Amino acid sequence: MNKRVIIIGGIAAALALIGGGVWYWMRGKGSSGKDTAYVTTVGSLTENISGTLNRYAGVVEPQETVEVKLDSSRAVQQLMVEEGQTVKAGDQLFIYDISSGEEELATARLELERMKTEAVSYQEQINTYQREKEKAPQEDQLSYTIQIQSAQMDLKKNEYDQKKKAAEIEKLEKTGDSPVVTSEIDGVVKKIKKSIMKGVEDYSDPDSDSSGGESTFITILGTGNYRVKGKINEQNMGDILEGEPVIIRSRQDTQVTWRGIMGMVDTEHPAEQDQNSDFIMSDSGGDDQQTTSSSYPFYVELDSTEGLMLGQHVYIETDVGQENQRDGIWLNELYIEDVDTQAPYVWASDGNDRLEKRQITLGEYDEAMGEYLISEGLTVDDCIAFPSESLREGMAVEISDQLQIPTEDQERKEKEQGPDGAQEIIDESGIYPGMDAEQGIDLPADTDENAAAPEGEVAP
What we know:
- There is one protein chain.
- The chain is α+β, with helices and mostly antiparallel strands.
- The protein has six helices and 23 strands.
- It has helices at 3-26, 42-47, 98-135, 141-177, 408-424, 448-451, and strands at residues 36-41, 55-62, 65-71, 76-79, 86-87, 92-96, 180-182, 187-192, 214-222, 226-233, 245-250, 257-265, 278-282, 288-292, 295-302, 313-318, 329-332, 345-349, 355-359, 361-366, 371-376, 383-385, 396-399.
- The protein has a six-stranded antiparallel β-barrel.
- A hairpin with a 5-residue loop joins strand 13 (278-282) and strand 14.
- The radius of gyration is 36 Å and the shape is elongated.
């Protein structure tokens, strides 16, 4: 599917909710007591178009993570680092106890010599049995054959044990020469499992090695090369397009941004289950059944990491050109009626709180953003309504810049209760409560709700 179609389709859906949805929900709320058309200032539409884009919460994490293993057959003499410590490539992490290693090496060498002597004995037995078999009568041939085969099996097992012991000796010799284990990368020590230093292994830990071999002892997070990790619900995974450009915004100052490329959604490693991710659905028989909705991580590869900090919380949004500074009034095409004719128009307030068809003159068209430059007919102070079949000239108008979008649950209640019932679910401030963060509808950047978006979830 064409990427632009998907992006503009998302903007279209959001604008349709903002325009037509707000008018439908709020009709009858106007001061006139009659049907009211809710309009929005052109300035707020053109300045906050990024508010119609999906925005996700993310966190800065390292590109590279190194897990340093500990040989469970060896003892640690000294630990050189602590959790949270910054290390450079080549810095010492810990030192093995070489005294015990030297004793093990000497014992292993003696054992290998014993095996070699034993192998010579097995071969001599085989030779003896073969000579005797040649002279033995027919009735004793089977007995000698069995003895030969048994000795041959013992010899083969001995040869296998010799190879295994030789490999053990080679490992002991290598580690004995280098008892110091160093860091492979520049990074920060995230975790040290000190319990396994004492031979106590927690096998409930995913890093544990139940085979008794090498277990993860120290985890180091690489520094310098960062990426951003986000999280998306399975129902919205179609919104993530691998390879599309994205903008990363600082939560402290949304004017501070970084650029990146959207990576893939990691469907093989679902995020930890959220208690709020269960919802109830009813079948035709009236039985309620609980349905679980999973979330999955996705990653953004950054063009530059300058100014970012490990663990920093940020916002992620699709880059459709919203950061480009352009002169004039650029209006989304969805607000414009008869755009393909010689007389395009918008539904606008006539200055006397009444709705009119305002003819406008169109200039350049931005295909990426789906916006027209308005050459004549509108100013940033004018107020316009989102097109709807219910609009008509002469209707009373009311500015609704601060209204938010109703939730699906509120829409259902409206259909059940009618317009009067819908008015009852709006609180005194005029703001619709219970906005669902998983809808991916953004609030203006300066709201408290936006600043408090939890890690890894779609910001409301």
